[in-house]
């Protein structure tokens, strides 16, 4: 997910300006954001305080890390299950002679 250019404090300040009566178009123009971005901020952070917004971000980061760890674990588990079901054959004679040939060439 793309990281926001604004910190939680800046987002909360933007939302407070709009709540105080400043038109949304002017707030967006002043802070250099899009109206869609503003409404995304409002839907995500509208009823939160700054400390709650920080906590939400840390929880999102932890959740993303846990999802990544789970995906890695599932991948390793699938690889091990596949390797367990495969039949392995004995090495060929040429493969067993390789160390002997390697020593003779020295």
Gap from first CA to last CA:
55 Å
Secondary-structure element sequence? Answer: HHHHH
Alpha-beta content class? mainly alpha
- Tell me about the biggest sheet? none
Proportion of residues in extended strands: under 5%
DSSP, total strands: 0
DSSP helix fraction: over 70%
Shape: rod-shaped
What is the overall number of helices?
Answer: 5
Mean pLDDT across every amino acid position: 83
Rg on CA atoms, Å: 29 Å
Report the uncertain regions. Answer: none
Write up this protein.
The structure is a single chain. The chain is mainly α and 106 residues long. 75% of the residues lie in helices and 0% in strands. It is built from five helices and no strands. The chain has helices at residues 8-19, 24-31, 35-45, 50-85, 93-104. Helix 1 packs across helix 3. The protein is rod-shaped, with a radius of gyration of 29 Å. The mean pLDDT is 83.
């Amino acid at each position: 997910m793309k990281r926001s250019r604004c910190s939680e404090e800046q987002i909360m300040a933007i939302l407070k300006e709009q709540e105080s009566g400043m038109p949304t178009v002017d707030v967006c123009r002043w802070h250099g954001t899009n109206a869609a971005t503003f409404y995304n901020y409002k839907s995500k952070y509208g009823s939160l305080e700054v400390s709650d917004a920080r906590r939400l971000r840390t929880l999102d980061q932890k959740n993303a890390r846990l999802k990544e760890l789970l995906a890695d674990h599932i991948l390793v588990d699938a690889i091990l299950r596949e390797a367990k079901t495969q039949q392995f054959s004995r090495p060929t004679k040429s493969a067993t002679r390789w160390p002997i040939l390697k020593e003779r060439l020295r």
